[in-house]
Amino acid sequence: MSSTAILFCPFCRECFEGLTHCPDHDLALVSFEALPKTKEETSPLGEHDVLPATDLRFGRGVAALGAITVLVGFLLPLGYLVGTEIIEITPYWIAAARRPSMWGVPIVALFVLVILVQRRTIARMRGARIVIVLLSIAILISEAIAVWGLYVAAAHQPFGTEPMHVQLASGTFVIAAGGILVALGGVLFGKRKVEATLPHGAGPDEEGPGIRTDDKHEPAKKKRDQSNASKR
């Protein structure tokens, strides 16, 4: 079975079946996974190279996860007013019945996703970094105002005469977690690892593969060359 495996030449990248060496270059054939990477595969990403919309690098995945988390949290209970009866309060109910500004939370989350689709180069992502951070702050402030409104409502006892207290629910924590993730994604948006570069003419510290020479014999070799030159 191994004799009929398809292998590739590391130089010309041609595939051969049933051979172990390239007939043209006399090199040992390797599997497709072991082929050396091409220049295009190893070249660094340019400032204006367009990324796929589904690329999750450079903080994009973190920001997208945060925006989706915020949208999910908007549909969950924000908290409960607990008294003689338990009243469930959702962000949707607050936006529809009490505070229309609460609609800003899902709108901002959707706007973050739109930015991720539109800004797909390193240069453009860096330009929108501060915008995403500010949007995450808007999400967290809107949620804080909504939670504060729950405590105000409990203090005024709008649903009865018995004392009421607030019990925070999953939506509060999910939206807060999503806002923090959006902020983190904004900080990392368009940021890539700084690659250390060597000065011009400098080589790596470790010796690579190749023919090694013994420096001990270099002075003797120079002396022989000088003696031969003097005889001539």
Helix and strand arrangement:
Layout: E1 6-8, E2 15-17, H1 39-42, H2 60-74, E3 79-82, E4 86-89, H3 91-98, H4 104-118, H5 122-127, H6 129-156, E5 165-168, H7 170-188, H8 218-231
Tell me about this structure:
This protein has eight helices and five strands; from the N terminus they run E-E-H-H-E-E-H-H-H-H-E-H-H. The chain has two domains: 1-41, no CATH class; 60-188. The protein has 232 residues and is mainly α. Helix 4 packs antiparallel against helix 6 (129-156). It has a three-stranded antiparallel sheet. The protein has a two-stranded antiparallel ribbon with strand order 1-2.
List keywords for this structure.
mainly alpha; three-stranded antiparallel β-sheet; two-stranded antiparallel ribbon; 47% helix; elongated; 2 domains; 232 residues; 8 helices
Q: What's a concise summary of this model?
A:
The chain is mainly α and 232 residues long. The chain has 8 helices and 5 strands; from the N terminus they run ββααββααααβαα.
Sheet/helix structural class:
mainly alpha
Number of domains in the coordinates? 2
**Alpha-carbon Rg, integer:** 32 Å
Percentage of β-strand residues: 5-15%
Please give the largest β-sheet: 3 strands, antiparallel
Estimate percent helicity. Answer: 40-55%
Order of helices and strands: EEHHEEHHHHEHH
Task: Give a count of the beta strands, DSSP E runs of length 2 or more.
Answer: 5
Number of helices: 8
> In angstroms, what separates the terminal alpha carbons?
64 Å
Are there runs of 5+ residues with pLDDT below 50, and where? 195-218
Based on CA inertia axes, which overall geometry fits?
elongated
Strand order of the largest sheet: 4-3-5
Quote the average pLDDT.
79
